[in-house]
Design brief:
Blueprint lengths: L1 E4 L5 E2 L14 E5 L3 E8 L4 E7 L4 E8 L3 E8 L7 E9 L12 E11 L18
Parallel strand pairs: 3-9
Antiparallel strand pairs: 1-2, 1-4, 4-7, 5-6, 5-8, 8-9
Length: 133
């Protein structure tokens, strides 16, 4: 699986071949109002659940029909996703399929930093020392 904002160079995260294990996190930064592109290897006739979570709750879920070779889905990034979200992908293959040797369920995860200029804190430091001697 890899995640990127539209038009940016893509950084790949491999979807693990074993159930219940998660891939390493990569941090991508995007602004709210844009879309993150999630791509993962898949076979036809499967389904994927893409869950957008912020650590304390599930913000959005999307059911996606998978394509042969790879599946790509655009996740809209909203203001409530700042400062970061995690995209969890659960890939469900059809039962009793014999086209590949992958498990029926596969999991992947990607982290995305969401920049919101309204919530950026700019530190201010006032010098209290006198510069004159």
């Amino acid at each position: 699986m890899h995640a990127s904002t539209l038009g940016e160079k893509v950084e790949r995260i491999q979807v693990p071949k074993l159930p219940c294990s998660c891939s390493p996190l990569t941090r991508r930064t995007t602004r709210w109002g844009k879309k993150a592109i999630v791509t993962f290897p898949s076979d036809a006739n499967g389904r994927a659940l893409i869950s957008v979570e912020n650590g304390s709750k599930v913000l959005r879920t999307y059911w996606v029909n998978t394509q042969k070779g790879k599946t790509t889905y655009e996740v809209p990034i909203s203001e409530d996703m700042a400062p970061n979200v995690y995209l969890y992908v659960t890939l469900l293959q059809p039962h009793a399929q014999t086209k590949n040797d992958a498990p029926i369920r596969l999991y992947g995860i990607a982290a995305i930093s969401v920049y919101n200029p309204k919530t950026k804190i700019e530190p201010y430091h006032r010098n209290t020392r006198s510069t004159s001697s």
